[in-house]
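Q: I'm building a small set of examples for a reading group on sequence design. Run inverse folding on the following structure and report the sequence directly after it, with nothing in between.
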């Protein structure tokens, strides 16, 4: 359960691709079209197709790369999830969990990766939805530890060492402060080595061209991605089904 197109690729692209490869049914619920996000397309293309349509297409392309064939994209307003109809938002999440008979649910941790209000709202509503279910799935929160995104920006700096601070190679998917990622984030309980899937994770990230432009992520190569995108971190929620899940087996296999 993610808030915007591109969240799935950066946060959990490795795990999602891994699950799809194993034959696990992966369903993606995206709560908004990201229509109010930055638009890094060339100006002539910005006028050709509205951003919401472009981002919907990019999401489906990224999902295809990751092996996800069940994508639900909702029309909650981008940037307004904390102030939307929370009952409807939670009901939409609950309906998708029930429809897919989910065994494991992923969403943001309480820090929203970098304290993004939409991400935090997705965390809160998904947690509430799982807690209210009878026979609920296991719930995991994805987090990006402090320093992870800073390392990606540092890599971009080595490739383009003379860029000015105002240039977008300093940003990651529109976030201008890479140190916001992971600041005061809860400690993860599960680390997955997704090195075998960083190529696909990088390909999925690149599907979101409207958000990239000269972004630091564009300077990643398959070789550098195998190092900088190789570990994904999750925290087990204290709501939902407890006990071991197949993610624990993946963690053991990845060590």
């Amino acid at each position: 359960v993610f808030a915007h197109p591109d969240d799935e690729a950066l946060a959990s692209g490795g795990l999602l691709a891994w699950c799809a490869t194993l034959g696990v049914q992966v369903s993606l619920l995206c709560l908004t079209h990201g229509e109010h996000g930055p638009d890094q397309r060339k100006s002539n293309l910005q006028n050709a197709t509205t951003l919401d349509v472009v981002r919907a297409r990019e999401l489906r392309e990224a999902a295809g790369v990751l092996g996800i064939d069940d994508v639900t994209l909702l029309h909650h307003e981008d940037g307004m999830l904390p102030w939307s109809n929370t009952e409807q938002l939670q009901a939409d999440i609950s309906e998708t969990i029930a429809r897919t008979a989910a065994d494991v649910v992923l969403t943001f941790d309480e820090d929203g990766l970098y304290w993004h209000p939409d991400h935090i709202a997705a965390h809160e509503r998904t947690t509430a939805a799982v807690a209210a279910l009878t026979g609920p799935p296991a719930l995991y929160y994805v987090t990006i530890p402090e320093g992870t995104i800073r390392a990606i920006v540092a890599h971009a700096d080595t490739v383009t060492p003379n860029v000015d601070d105002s240039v977008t190679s300093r940003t990651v998917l529109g976030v201008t402060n890479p140190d916001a990622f992971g600041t005061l984030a809860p400690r993860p309980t599960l680390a997955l080595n997704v090195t075998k899937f960083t190529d696909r994770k990088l390909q999925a990230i690149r599907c979101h061209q409207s958000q990239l432009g000269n972004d630091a992520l564009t300077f990643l190569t398959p070789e550098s991605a195998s190092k900088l995108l190789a570990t994904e971190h999750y925290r087990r929620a204290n709501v939902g089904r407890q006990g071991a899940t197949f993610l624990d087996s993946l963690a053991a296999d990845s060590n």
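The chain is about 40% helix and 15% strand.
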